[in-house]
């Protein structure tokens, strides 16, 4: 493998994982970020995000001298063979991805890039962005390559070092090869395509995952209607390798920093290009409807029928968009909390990942320091993030704390038999009330 000099612009979870892992593979990596304090912390080996193995890889990279952090983007790229753009592309006006950060950096680095270097879009960007960056750079000697990431939060290092596939797209195949060669040693199929193919592969992947989850959530409702158990039905179809069992688990709706943003961005791309893709709109709408339906269930279970939750105290266990992270971006738990709040509920929530970060959520709920504090006196308990420790709570004690024995397990995490023995009624998703045991 040829050792390359790599610059990574942006040290979010994608950029930092990319930088640290490429250094682990032997490359010489300089990561740039405009946040001065973050750069200082990273230089000391301090990683702010909750990502297994990442702090170790950062410290190893620093110790080996293969990984460095700087504030000056132009200085970082000045010596690089390959420059990765790992910048935020948040949902902008009308759902389209906001490319302001990518465009600003392209502007900054235009005349700092070495001759013949390659710029790589790692962030999820609309189709045509590689061309747009190339036009902004206006450097015929610099190729722009699309190499999307498929990293899950909480598994970013593992996903980087053990990818299912590596997708690299560019009109200039030599440049694409140069990027693909950075990953030499990783055991994964390489998909070489053009830039539009790589850009679309990323959106298609996240859309497909969201579609599977919307399918599972709709199927759960159908199962409830017929008294079937959704887990049995999903197991019944999941053994078919054409279907598979991964990512087919009902929950409180899909969220996080990628799936909602990317499905909306793809919807905008389809609308703007005049391509009808009805599954996409249906996938998004299903997610919204599913959450409304879950809230109606809580309302129906907690009120005598007037539809209001005014004065009803509810305990929420879990706020992060999934277990293993403190990330609240587009969290289904927060979406459900907002709907409950609109109905007048008084929410007390606990999440193990938020005890230290303590985000200000005071206009929505009261953040408790312990599960007990959230549960005491509540009319019902809702489990909204699949933290394993919720499964192991002392449910007899919880039964004593709750004002009524109702637990809504919207992650199908808990053992309903165990809760029943503790004197609680546990309602999951996709199990008819009779089967809630
Ligand atoms: C996702 C993609 O998986 C990753 O490939 C991409 O690069 C970034 O977006 P991430 O946002 O970290 O990763 O979350 P993921 O683990 O995919 O979960 C997304 C959402 O689906 C979460 O809200 C999660 O709780 C939900 N989910 C996931 C379910 O409801 N059921 C499941 O079986 C799996």
From TrEMBL:
Enzyme active site: 258
Which pathway does the database say it acts in?
A: Nucleotide-sugar biosynthesis; UDP-alpha-D-glucuronate biosynthesis; UDP-alpha-D-glucuronate from UDP-alpha-D-glucose: step 1/1
Q: Which InterPro entries match?
A: 6-PGluconate_DH-like_C_sf, NAD(P)-bd_dom_sf, UDP-Glc/GDP-Man, UDP-Glc/GDP-Man_DH_C, UDP-Glc/GDP-Man_DH_C_sf, UDP-Glc/GDP-Man_DH_dimer, UDP-Glc/GDP-Man_DH_N, UDPglc_DH_bac
Q: Which PANTHER family match?
A: UDP-GLUCOSE 6-DEHYDROGENASE TUAD
Entry's EC annotation: 1.1.1.22
Report the residue ranges that make up the UDP-glucose/GDP-mannose dehydrogenase C-terminal domain in this protein: 315-416
Q: Which NCBIfam families match?
A: NDP-sugDHase
Positions bound to NAD(+): 33, 38, 89, 124, 153, 261, 329
This entry's Gene Ontology molecular function terms read: NAD binding; UDP-glucose 6-dehydrogenase activity
Family, similarity comment? Belongs to the UDP-glucose/GDP-mannose dehydrogenase family.
Identify this protein by name: UDP-glucose 6-dehydrogenase
Q: Name one GO biological process term.
A: polysaccharide biosynthetic process
Reactions that this protein is recorded to catalyse: UDP-alpha-D-glucose + 2 NAD(+) + H2O = UDP-alpha-D-glucuronate + 2 NADH + 3 H(+)
The residues listed in the UniProt record as binding substrate, with positions renumbered to this chain, are 150-153, 202, 247-251, 255, 322
* Signal peptide residues on this chain, from the entry's feature table: none
PROSITE patterns, A to Z: PROKAR_LIPOPROTEIN (PS51257)
